[in-house]
Amino acid sequence: MKKIFLIFTLIFTLLNAEQTINTNTIDNSPRVLFTLNDKNYTTEIFPKEFKNFSKQEQLILISKYLFYKLLLQTLRPEQLTYKSLIQKNIQKEAKEIERVGKILLPPEKIFFKEKIIAETIAYNELLKTHLDLDKKAKEFYEEHKKEFFYPKRVEVSQIIVKEKKLALELIEKLKNNDIKLFSKLARKHSISNSKYKGGYIGFIGEKGTDKKSFNILWKSQSNHLVPQILEHGKYYSIVYLFNKDEPRQETFAEKKDEIKKFLLKKEIKLWNKEKFKIIKKETKVKLIY
Fold first, then answer.
1. 62 in any annotated domain
2. Does the predicted TM-score (pTM) go above 0.70?
3. Distance CA 276, CA 70 (A)
4. Based on the domain organization, do 111 and 202 belong to the same domain?
């Protein structure tokens, strides 16, 4: 209930919205959700699954839609300026999601492009006012250089279950090394929180894993299902192995862009928030829910 209240606060306080009662209750017809400057926006702006979401999830989607709709409206000139870079970043992120078979949550999936557009513009606009960012990034790297040394490690996704019978059934289904199927089965069967990412957990080091299991992973073929079930006490895990890394020190050149974006992370959010504040003052919003 508290989260729902906060979402309503976001919509009403930030957008100065009015609320009316929605009398359109026919399930199979588009339902008006809100108006922007007296123009109706119905459930058709969202995927068909929208009607099956909880009230809280629907409100989150509505609030995000309003945010990006208004924000990107005021950033039209910048979208043209950074068009090629935006497209490049969208393709890069889409490729990475496909590589690991990540399953996006509704807000991530629906606003995938909008989020990248907004962040790309904010980052590149902020670079104009942070002329010493390369220097600061280099200082950050030197200060945290030890943290950029990675031990022997593997990149994996996993499905953790309690029943060995189920584990055997799943590993049989996954023998064709289909990472998309792996992600779907992880979402359905895994008892680990990683199921919300399709089972993806990223890199795990040799020191953070029991020796027997790590040796099995290390000997397995990259971009393939690990051919045997790993046992961890009362639990069983089916693992998909993406990559294996020997111990190495990542260079500043490799981490430079990542560090710069990290240093500007808070300012990127603030920059977009300030742009949003400007246009929301000029917009009349009425929530009909």
1. yes
2. yes
3. 7
4. no
